[in-house]
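dumping the sequnces here before i forget
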Amino acid sequence: MLKGKTALVTGSTSGIGLGIARALAAQGANIVFNGFGEAAAIEALRKEVAGTHGVQTLYHPADMTQPAEIRALVQAADALGGVDVLVNNAGIQFVAPVDEFPEERWDAIIAINLTSNFHAIKAALPGMKAKGWGRIINIASVHGLVASANKSAYVAAKHGVVGLTKAVALETAATPVTCNAICPGWVLTALVQKQIDDRAAAQKLSAEEARKSLLGEKQPSQDFVTTEQLGQLAVFLCSPAANQIRGAAWNIDGGWFAQ
Ligand code: NAD
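..and the predicted 3d for all of it:
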């Protein structure tokens, strides 16, 4: 379905971004990888995805706190024909009460989780309009729709992503470019494993007990969303069936937001 198209996925060296990159590559999309990690492991991943799916891949190390690097990342996709699908996925988390929240962590979360989406969209949208097709998929969170205590910066950033998604969707409504947000509940990635480990240490729980307690608090299905499920939702949003899905904040969260 995406043969000949190019998908840029920020933060695709692990977790959700990697799951989405794999799913888009399986549809024939060339992939621009981005994110941190060990150089040899990233190179092996890049080659593995290219070889498995017969697509072209490249890696760009842009830091999502740096607007000039984000612009360079979008430009780097020109080597594969330019960005057709932009997935703004890179993100970080930090948990603390607002009156103890380190200012430097607030700034980093807003920069990486929200402002980077603006810079990438601004850089990629003209090319999509010129080509007459495009998909912008912002990985927000169920925390773009509801809040949890001790996550002020993350919740503010993700609500911001949902707002940005709606504004861009309206500005592109009469074009063949769509913009939507995906709002996952708990997905078992490095970002969440740290929260499970912290919970196990703080409450003297086993790893399994901490996992169950984390899910039990918020996610009625008591099961994690998988990166494969998120990949398939991204594929659907790229399909012709999704041409009129615009400005959605699509929760995929085991029932979290229904409560
Ligand atoms: P992860 O830690 O596995 O992956 C994060 C990715 O972002 C990595 O590739 C990392 O290298 C990259 N990254 C971090 N800082 C960066 C920077 N400054 N510049 C470039 N890349 C950077 O986490 P994940 O769970 O896969 O999270 C991916 C996205 O999904 C995030 O936006 C997160 O907020 C969102 N999300 C995650 C969950 C969950 O339960 N895991 C739920 C809802 C939303």
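The chain has a mean pLDDT of 98.
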